[in-house]
Specification:
Blueprint lengths: L2 E7 L11 H4 L4 H15 L1 E7 L3 H11 L5 E5 L8 H10 L3 E5 L21 E4 L4 H20 L11
Parallel strand pairs: 1-2, 1-3, 3-4, 4-5
The site of 1,3,4-trihydroxy-5-OXO-cyclohexanecarboxylic acid has 10 residues, from loops.
Length: about 160
C-alpha cells in the first residue's frame, strides 16, 4: 500500500478561482486536488486532500494523522499568521511537515510575513501558485523515502509489558 500524505487547506481556500484571482489565480481547489492526486500517482504516494474553514477541525485532522500518515503538506491560509494551536498540533504529530502558500507572502502585507507554523515545517514553498503543491509533494516523497530508510517516523514498537 502506498504511504499516505495529508494535504490540508485552511480557511477560504474553498473559494479559490473566485477569490482575489489577481493574487491566487483562476484555478479552483478541485483543480489543485487533481494536480496533487496526479503527482501522488507519479510519486507512489496516496493523497488525502482536505479543506476546512475551522481551526478545530484542522487540529483534529492533524491529531488523527499521527502514526497513520507519512507526512503533512499544509496551506493553513490566514491561520498561518495567527494559530499557535496549529503549530502545536503539527509539532505533536511528529510527522514531516511542508508549508505551502500560493502567493509570495513576502511581497504582501507585513502581517503575512510571519508564520507560526513554519517552526514545525521542514520547508516552505510560497509564491509559485499551484505548482508549489506539486514541488512540495516531490520533496515529501524524498523525505518519506529517506525516513523509511533510516527508520525515522516509523510507528513505535508496542510495549509488551
Ligand atoms: C495563503 C496566504 C495567506 O496569507 C492567506 O490568508 C490565504 C492564502 C496563500 O496560499 O497564499 O488564505 O495561504
Amino acid at each position: 500500500m502506498p504511504q499516505s500524505v495529508l494535504v490540508l487547506n485552511g480557511p477560504n481556500l474553498n473559494l479559490l478561482g473566485i477569490r482575489e484571482p489577481e493574487i491566487y489565480g483562476r484555478e479552483t481547489l478541485a483543480d489543485i486536488a487533481a494536480l496533487c492526486k496526479d503527482a501522488g500517482k507519479r510519486l507512489g504516494l496516496a493523497i488525502d486532500f482536505r479543506q476546512s474553514n475551522s481551526e478545530a477541525e484542522l487540529v483534529g485532522w492533524i491529531q488523527e494523522a499521527r502514526g497513520k500518515k507519512a507526512g503533512i503538506l499544509i496551506n493553513a491560509g490566514a491561520l498561518t499568521h495567527t494559530s499557535i494551536s496549529l503549530l502545536d498540533a503539527l509539532l505533536a504529530s511528529e510527522l514531516p511537515v511542508i508549508e505551502v502558500h500560493l502567493s509570495n507572502l513576502f511581497r504582501r502585507e507585513e502581517f503575512r510575513h510571519h508564520s507560526y507554523i513554519s517552526r514545525a515545517a521542514r520547508g516552505l514553498i510560497c509564491g509559485l501558485g499551484s505548482q508549489g503543491y506539486v514541488l512540495a509533494l516531490e520533496a515529501m516523497a524524498r523525505i518519506v523515502g529517506d525516513d523509511a530508510a533510516t527508520g525515522k517516523n516509523a510507528p513505535k514498537a508496542k510495549r509488551t509489558k
